[in-house]
């Protein structure tokens, strides 16, 4: 047993492959390793270790995905005239701002999460935003962000040494301790090959709308906040 090192192991965790001798040790290992005990169906398997069981597992996984996609396509909300009209309006308004907004079918996480709206009276988008801070492994979701707000103002509650929330500030300490001139805001370029990932660098002093013009957005923008000295693995377009 890899938990107590006393008894002979009887069980093996499908997730992390740790050996355990009893239900108590199984629970302890899950708590210590934050393991849910569920086999990772998409875990990488090298060609040398690939067996018929792995092939069968992949086949069943794809069948499950197909059934889920089919069920989502049959959902009543998909065929709702109001839903279609709303999505058409959003895409049309975005096109008028030189933004190519793409929406996903019902059932996808980003489609379910997206809360972006367009206010016709103000002629303004209120965006659903995801902010990713990769150096701290932190993500935050911001809803109802007006398109005329600058990126610098959007980030103030997170990385500004004075105005940020104390709890958030502590978690993002590496950002708040760095000079603001070292902070870079990147956005992944969509519709590229998976082995050719590139990012656009955005201008923090300009509005969200100005930064999104001429770009492809799938559901809502995801902004990566990185430090100039630590973004070696994130290639900006043109470099």
UniProtKB/TrEMBL annotation:
Required for box C/D snoRNAs accumulation involved in snoRNA processing, snoRNA transport to the nucleolus and ribosome biogenesis. Interacts with FBL, SNU13, NOP58, NUFIP1, RUVBL1, RUVBL2 and TAF9. Interacts (via HIT-type zinc finger) with the RUVBL1/RUVBL2 complex in the presence of ADP. GO terms for molecular function: zinc ion binding. Belongs to the BCD1 family. PROSITE patterns: ZF_HIT. The keyword Magnesium does not apply. It comes from the Eukaryota. GO terms for biological process: box C/D snoRNP assembly; maturation of LSU-rRNA from tricistronic rRNA transcript (SSU-rRNA, 5.8S rRNA, LSU-rRNA); snoRNA localization. Keywords: Isopeptide bond, Metal-binding, Phosphoprotein, Ribosome biogenesis, Ubl conjugation, Zinc, Zinc-finger. It holds the Pfam family BCD1. InterPro entries: BCD1, BCD1_alpha/beta, Znf_HIT. Residues 1-35 form the HIT-type domain. This is Box C/D snoRNA protein 1. PANTHER family: BOX C_D SNORNA PROTEIN 1, BOX C_D SNORNA PROTEIN 1-RELATED. The keyword Zinc applies. The gene is Znhit6. One of its GO terms (cellular component) is pre-snoRNP complex.
């Amino acid at each position: 047993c890899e938990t107590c090192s006393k008894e002979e192991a009887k069980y093996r965790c499908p997730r992390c492959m740790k050996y355990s001798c009893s239900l108590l040790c199984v629970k302890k290992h899950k708590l210590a390793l934050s393991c849910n005990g569920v086999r990772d169906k998409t875990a990488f398997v090298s060609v040398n270790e690939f067996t018929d069981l792995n092939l069968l597992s992949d086949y069943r996984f794809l069948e499950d995905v197909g059934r889920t996609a089919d069920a989502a396509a049959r959902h009543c909300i998909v065929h709702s005239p109001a839903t279609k009209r709303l999505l058409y309006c959003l895409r049309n308004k975005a096109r008028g701002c030189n933004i190519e907004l793409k929406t996903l079918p019902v059932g996808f996480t980003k489609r379910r999460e997206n809360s972006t709206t367009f206010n016709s009276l103000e002629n303004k988008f209120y965006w659903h935003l995801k902010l990713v801070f990769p150096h701290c492994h932190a993500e935050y979701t911001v809803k109802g962000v007006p398109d005329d707000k600058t990126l610098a103002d959007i980030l103030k509650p997170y990385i500004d040494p004075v105005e940020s929330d104390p709890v958030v500030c502590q978690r993002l300490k590496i950002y708040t301790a760095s000079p603001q001139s070292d902070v870079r805001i990147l956005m992944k370029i969509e519709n590229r090959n998976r082995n050719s990932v590139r990012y656009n660098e955005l201008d923090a002093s300009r509005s969200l709308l100005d930064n999104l013009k001429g770009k492809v957005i799938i559901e809502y923008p995801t902004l990566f906040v990185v430090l100039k000295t630590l973004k070696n693995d994130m290639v900006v377009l043109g470099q």
